[in-house]
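Issue 218. Parser rejects a valid record. Input:
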Amino acid sequence: MMRRHALLWVLAFLFVWPAAAQDQIVKLPGPGGATLVARVVRPPGEARQPLVVINHGSPADGSQRARMEPPRYSALSSWFLARGYVVALPLRRGYGESGGTWAEAYGRCDAPDYYSAGLQSAADVQATIDFMRTQPYVAPDRTLVVGQSAGGWATVALSSRNPPGVPGMINFAGGRGGHQKLPGGGIGNCTPEALVQAAGKYGATARVPLLWIYAENDSFFEPALARRMVAAYDASGGKATFRPVGAFGRDGHSLAGSNDGAAIWAPLVQNFLAGLR
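Output the parser choked on:
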């Protein structure tokens, strides 16, 4: 039954994007004079519509950054398109054809600065919001921010800045430092405690509602770590809604990017948005 439900979601999305949406690649001004590349998908017509900015992850192998293309996140994009949103999917600095130096480095694996790295990512997200709000088809005061993995971490970081006109944000499997070579030679997460501390630091100033969705079999950020990050964020003043889900596919880290994941996340996202003011 669950697989059939997921298939119905996929079919619904496939009929929405190709048939009606306008899909284009745009260039926009980023931090420090860099030029960012973004995919923009929007409903037909010229009426001003709410905006959602969907933010990509970062490959564990840094050599892959230069080959990245503007993301699609087809299921997520189609879900928001069907609800009248303009969807912007930017490539941050140092990814693919976006200009500027990669700004998200967090330093040594045994002493990472996840806090500052996240704010660098958040600056690119904010630049995307600022540009898109100048477009005649975007409502300037109704914006959602969504991110997966490093893009989820960028979303958490941006929440600490409480950007105006953003009533809510969604973090899928957010974090940094996963699948890295550890000082001892193994592969794992670089200093998980530093992620927890950075999450708490973001939460100290964040007041925008933030939905956190993590799968049980996420190989980058396992359930106990996700819970600790959320707890630290909330304890310092953040407004987190934590929705852990069961195992998804071979690796739950792919939940947001997989069409099959829509049957799991769509009801959670719908309920979250329904509760926003």
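Fixed in the parser; the record now loads. The helical segments are 2-20, 74-81, 114-132, 150-159, 192-203, 223-235, 262-274.
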